[in-house]
Amino acid sequence: MDSTGIIQFFLILLTIITTIGFAAITYYLAEISRVLNMAGSPQVPLPPAETLSPARKEPLIEPGAMGSLEEALGLISRKYGLESITLATTDGLLIASTKPGSEDDAARYSHLYLQGKLRGENGIELLGMSHRGETVIAITRSSAPLSDDQRNALEKDIQNTLQHWV
């Protein structure tokens, strides 16, 4: 066998090895795809997100199980997908917040609430609720506005938390 025959032999061998390699890779990718499709969510239609009540989506908030008011507010914030919650008096005094340095927000948004403005810039919503004869203002920051059902459930969770901690 001369050098040309040896080169042809190795080229044929490389072609066969490459073809087998591509076939093996294709087979394993198909298997991975099949497994991922089986492990995916079931093909059962789910109702739209708006029809699910917040109480069904998330567990009930138990303020007594939390270590502090701020910890309870953090859980409420996660439950409703809020960036932060700040509680303030109508005088602008900070009660508690999930966001450090919220004293300025408490003063500023309490003033806006007293002027009758219930929304601020950057996804701020103001909720007023009565607690032991005083109005407490919840300053919520969110990337998406809350529905009426979510807002009512949020107020209830905040009031339950206030009952326990304040």
Keywords:
166 residues, alpha+beta, Beta-Lactamase, 2 domains, four-stranded antiparallel β-sheet, rod-shaped, transmembrane helix, transmembrane, membrane, Roadblock/LAMTOR2 domain-containing protein
What does this structure look like?
The chain crosses the membrane at residues 6-30. This is Roadblock/LAMTOR2 domain-containing protein. With 166 residues, the chain is an alpha+beta fold. The chain folds into two domains: 1-45; 58-165, 2-Layer Sandwich (Beta-Lactamase), CATH 3.30.450. The chain is 49% helix and 16% strand. It contains five helices and four strands, in the order αααββαββα. Strands 2-1-4-3 form a four-stranded antiparallel beta sheet, sandwiched between helices. A hairpin with a 4-residue loop joins β1 and β2 (94-97). It starts with a helix and ends with a helix. Mean pLDDT is 80; it is low at 49-56.
Strand content: 15-25%
Mean pLDDT, to the nearest integer, reads 80
The domain count comes to 2
CATH superfamily of the largest domain: Dynein light chain 2a, cytoplasmic
Runs in which pLDDT lies below 50 for 5 or more consecutive residues are: 49-56
Task: Choose one word for the global shape.
Answer: rod-shaped
CATH architecture of the largest domain: 2-Layer Sandwich
Helix content: 40-55%
Overall number of strands? 4
Query: What class would the helix/strand composition place it in?
Result: alpha+beta
Strand order of the largest sheet: 2-1-4-3
Protein name: Roadblock/LAMTOR2 domain-containing protein
Organism: Methanoculleus receptaculi
Transmembrane segments: 6-30
Keywords: Membrane, Transmembrane, Transmembrane helix
